[in-house]
Design goal:
Length: 369
Amino acid sequence: MIHKRKIIILPGDGIGPEVTQWGRRTIETIGECYGHLFEFEEALIGHSAIQATGNPLPDETLAACRKADAILLGAVGDPMYDNNPKLKVRPEQGLLKIRKELGLYANLRPIKIFDELAHASSLKPEVLQGSDILFFRELTGGIYFGPQERIAEGDVAISTMIYSKDEVRRIAVKAFEAARTRRKILHSVDKANVLEASRLWREVIQEISPEYPDVTVHHMFVDNAAMQLIKNPKQFDVIVTENMFGDILTDEASQIAGSLGMLASASVGDQVGLYEPIHGSAPDIAGKGIANPLATILSVALMLDIAFGMKRESEAVIEAVDTVLKKGFRTGDIADPGTPKERILGTDAMGQKVLNEIQMAVSLVTGDR
Ligand code: IPM
Ligand code: MG
């Protein structure tokens, strides 16, 4: 019997539904072209879940995710919360809770420049070309999940960065293992000159390092890392860092890839994994049909590889994106002043171009289409 793989789609908010639709169609196309069976189910998360149920992560969503083989998420968030810090129920809680509940402690964020997009970045093309960085952001600990409270009648607030050695060790092992399959350079980013939690972090990296004699380890303070990333991104191969530093550095690093609209991510632990674009819900362009679906499509490539071990299929998706870019097609966020108008596509046209390339590449090999 052919194994049917079940994928939960969590469209979420803003441009989430527009881009996950193309993620789903990419998976369907891969299924048709390569003879795999995929089954889909949609569930609520974020602001749309709050509106429907009052809960940013309804129990049914969590239960469905636990039973799935992989999860594809769009984005969560809505501007109505941004200027109202007093609102107690918030879309982001849904995302944080699903990460915690499913034990998704390792957030992989590959930053790879598609050379055609070097001009879309505000950084110099010659600085970017050839950059290839894989971030391992710790995702279920640190200041995001440490105790927080208001004291002194609400006039003082405390947020706490907290890490155990075990939490650091499990993400560090994943990062070391990955470095081993790449250029064998690992940068561990911390703030050990100031923070006790960072000194523990560094201690653990130093403890593990002898088990990976083939991997060269560099410890770097986060402020320096922020500078080095845009000064000389090519020095980096794998970067491992704690939750909030990783949140900030990966947004910065998106400029190395040309645009936040291109960046995919995988959040994995010991059970089912969650795949999502790094960009947010982009409420300013939601519903306009101009969102870039490529980060979601590239997240599907990560899913095919990591969740299903479908390397060839994953590469077919990445190749298709590359070909579409090489042919000069762009969404607005990755266009440059020289892009001809007719090459600037909306979400649907761009998604369809990628699917066409996947189908074309497969028919060239099999000759049956
Ligand atoms: C991300 C996002 C989230 C985070 C927000 C939406 C809670 O910025 O995935 O990087 O801070 O982790
Ligand atoms: Mg972020």
